[in-house]
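Collaborator request, handled under Task 6.
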Amino acid sequence: LARRRHFMKILARRRAFEGAKRSEQRNEEDSVDGNAKREISERELRLIELIEAGRARHAIMQETVELGGRMEKLSIAENASLAGLLKATEEVVRWKQEVLNAMETAVESDEVQLRQMQKICELDEKLIDMREAKLLRLEACKEEKEVESARLGLKALEARTENRQLRREMDSIRGAIEEAREG
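Structure tokens returned to the collaborator:
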């Protein structure tokens, strides 16, 4: 566009100059020969104007072609950049999927461990019940065995305490699993 404006300014100056020149020539030329010369010079001027206009068009066409080439290079670079961004995004998605799979595996493992601990607690409760029943039987026995019976009662109490601790641990693990599922 800048070149085109430049050429248009040159054409305007030339036309103004040539217009002034023509008016001088018209005043000087009174004869038929002067009129013929004027026609010839006007045709030459028109020819020069057409040639300059053609050159200006040619320059504009060249600029358009160059601009198209630059735009094509930019488009190629932009496509390469977008392809790189897409590949990086796919890598991030793949990594996040792997992390999610690992978390699901950990949750499943925690659930299995929780079930095993529940079974252990149930077995401990049965064992405590059996010990309590045995204590009752021993108490019904002789007075000599009261000392031994008391000792077994103490063991049962210790087992209950351990069972309560296991239940607390089991409840905390359940809470952690629920938080992991919600997260």
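The cover message to the collaborator said: "Residues 2-182 form one domain. The chain has a mean pLDDT of 78. Please let us know whether this matches your experimental observations."
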